[in-house]
Amino acid sequence: MASTHKTKALEKWLTANSLWNTELMELRPSPIGGIGVFAKQDLDPELEEQVLLLRIPKRNILSARNSCIANLFYENSIGGIHGLILAFIYEKALGEKSPWFDYIDSIMYRNDDGSLLQPVGCWSKTDKALLANTQIDMLNILDSSELEQVFTESVTFAKAVADTIAIPRELNVNTTSSTEEENRARFNEFAAVVQAITSRAFEIDSYHEIALVPGACLFNHASPSSDNGDGAEHVHFVCDAGCCTKCGEQECDHDESDEDFDVEMEDDGFEDISKEVSGQEDDGVEDVSGEEDSEDGWESDEELGSDEELGSGEELESDEELEPMTEITLEHITKLEEKLKQDIEDEKEETGSDREEEDSLDYEISPELEEIFSMDASECCDIVLEFPALAGDELYNTYGSLPNSLLVQRYGFIIDNNPADYVSLSVQVLKYIKKQSAVRKRVKFWETIGYDLLNEMIRQEKKKHDHEHDGTCDDGCGEEEEPYEEEWELEPRILANGEPSDTTYALAHLMVMPEAKFAKLAKTKPANMPLALAKLLSKEVKAYQLVLDWVKEKYAKYPDNGITGAQYTALYEQAKESRKRVITGILKSEKLALEAAEQYLTSKL
Amino acid sequence: MAKTPAPIVCCSPKCGKETDSTLKCPICAKDDVSNIFCSQTCFRTAWDEHKAIHKAENGADSYDPFPNYEYSGKLRAVYPLTARRAIPKHIKRPDYADHGKPLSEIKNDRTNKIPVLTAKEIAGIRKTAKVAREVLDVAAAAIKPGITTDELDAIVHKATINRNGYPSPLNYYNFPKSVCTSVNEIICHGIPDARPLEDGDIINLDVTVFYLGFHADMNETYYVGDKAKANQEVVNLVETTRECLDLAIATVKPGLLFRNLGEVIEEHATKNGCSVVRTYVGHGVNQFFHCQPNIPHYAKNKAIGIAKPGMVFTIEPMVCAGSYRDIRWPDNWTAATVDGLWSAQFEHMLLVTEDGVEVLSARNEKSPGGAIPRIA
Prior knowledge:
Chain A is an alpha+beta fold and 605 residues long. Chain A has a domain at 419-603: set domain protein methyltransferase, domain 2, CATH 3.90.1420. Chain A is built from 24 helices and ten strands. With 376 residues, chain B is α+β, with helices and mostly antiparallel strands. Chain B starts with 22 loop residues before the first strand and ends in a 17-residue tail after the last strand. Classes of the chains: A alpha+beta (605), B alpha+beta (376). The interface between A and B is large, with 77 and 88 residues.
């Protein structure tokens, strides 16, 4: 969760750097820990003035691109999450001098109980051992080597640029003068920073990639409404991702065909001139690039953006569409003058109404806010209200439909009774296949035809079903399809409710069917294949038995001498320390799911 | 033997292509001036800018081209503009000279890369800066009550081409002249026109020269006549601005965060009762007229980048006696203060060195202008 203190300073920062709707919401401690955002009045997304809760310009978000050392990142080809981590650490090192100080200062690196909020990979061996055989283990989240790699690269970068900017504390590793213990402490601090960042980062667009969005990360997570139907989430993060990768602008000249540019570049004379000065071939124009903001010494947005001013005039008809003209007469000129006058009038009318709105603000606003008011939504990140809330409600965002293992990895928390949770049977399935050499053909069939086709079919059925019930279908419905595991080996699983997933059951069915039946299935014509595959979902005692075997095997693999789900539930309820809660919570949900599976499968026998 | 006539080019500043079209401007033709549009499209898209060189319809010597515009101060545009000045063939032109679009600049735009010049390039740009300083000084020496800003433009243009340079402003995004002349309440980007300077005015000359493949960019504000030097408020504004720039330059060295320059400038401006313009910023200048880094002059900005030896950029604070807010004249260039109160600007071009800064645009003992004491 967004663990945030020093909320007053943060609110002040938000008020100065974004449109943060203090009339509708406030920050205070959340019952789930840390700080949350709460509705100050009943909120209704149908009311236009209540929709926009936060608007922060992209230039005010904390990203590698916006960093004070963005040029050093460019020179060292650093971007993505690594760039964001470094951008954050260097801004943090500037203390109050950073324009993001109040935001950075509000971030906690420790749990309420004082323990460092660290990625699971950095937990003690004892803690990690308790998670053996859980999803966290299966997904390799216990492994910290990737993080260590990022740390090493970060330290290398810091040393490489040390003559330009001082090395921040977290990266100040010295193998000669510092002890291993001191260096380990640096790494632990680094790891806590990384956890703080990964738990808050949002995907922005192809220019900024990912970034910290002050304000947006304060909305705690709830499972998506689509999961449990009770509308747990209230707000969504909205950010126009379509922009130029070179400059981050929506409309710019960088998307124009490069060919055009290349042609123009060839005769721009720069190369020759550079040679004249430098005597070197390589010092041509390619080496001298630079960014030009909308606010450079010459241009404002309008000028750089408006092609019609510079180009062939999109608004005006091209010569071919105009009456042929062999001579410009005074009459032509009068006509054109009239049109230009009319254009100005039209423009006045348009901007005039805007101005009225601006004038109606009867209070003084800062120049920063005034700029945000005039900005286009595409230049900003928004938090918008999607579902109604009552006064006093905590306002939740959803970070997506994620199982606890991934929630722990990214955000450091789990959700009790998480409907998206599951327990993988991959290890058990693969072991089974290895032992049964007779099923090899069937595995091949599953891998090449069966798995994808059946998945496709199940999803289409589900879509049909959903639409029948819901009636409404937004344009986006095609995109909301739940992705399935691309690799069939990773799919076998027991869902949170104790049932095997459809394809897990189908795979078991495929394994146990008589040889003759399989031969027939394998020979089915492509057109009839989907229907033939659907039969794998039909009731078959042997299939249930096989899944049950896998479940029992999985259950026996936890190195905890068979502590039950109920016992873990009790431990979970008692656990106060956050790490203990994560560990017991994970085990409780896995054990309960497997126990439910055993019951369910046994009932089918 | 008959001389080959010079090829005729389309008179649209957005086009500049050779043409055999017959679409003459009939108004120019009346004065025996031949201006040809290559197509109807060029005629239609460039007309608004083209007609600025036409004489007043009523036969008057000069006229206000925007009679219905609510100017924020006393200054008015005084047209006609003179025709675009020619560039001798032997002078190397930047890529935008014909059509106005600095394609190489746009292409290399906004990559977060801040160019670092090699020793050879530094030697080159130093020469360019020296030429630009000479040009600025020549024009500044001509400032006196009665001279028009267009005459100053002619001086800048001539001084530049005499030194084999191209006056960078000319046709950059279709700017019509070779220098920016910003008088009194004009913040920047004033277009040289037929207005004679008056005793008591202040004027900023913003000169940029393209020479040896580099742009060199610098500007200063000058007092016109003795009246201005005796005006306590005006002197405070001009000298405060000059000091703002000097204070900012003093902080330049490797490791400087560009966003910190604004703190120094705004603090000094505020202390002297002035405000800092936010819309226009300093910039990298090298093979490109404008590139990274951006240098906002106001406090609490989030400009990106950190200084390294070999970077060349400008600091050019625009400081106002009243509101920092700017508006733009209908010519789409001239930036004026919203309240009509005066504004001053100074610009230097700086090279980050190993241990500090070299002012490439530095004045010399013969340079006109310079600081004067405040009036108590």
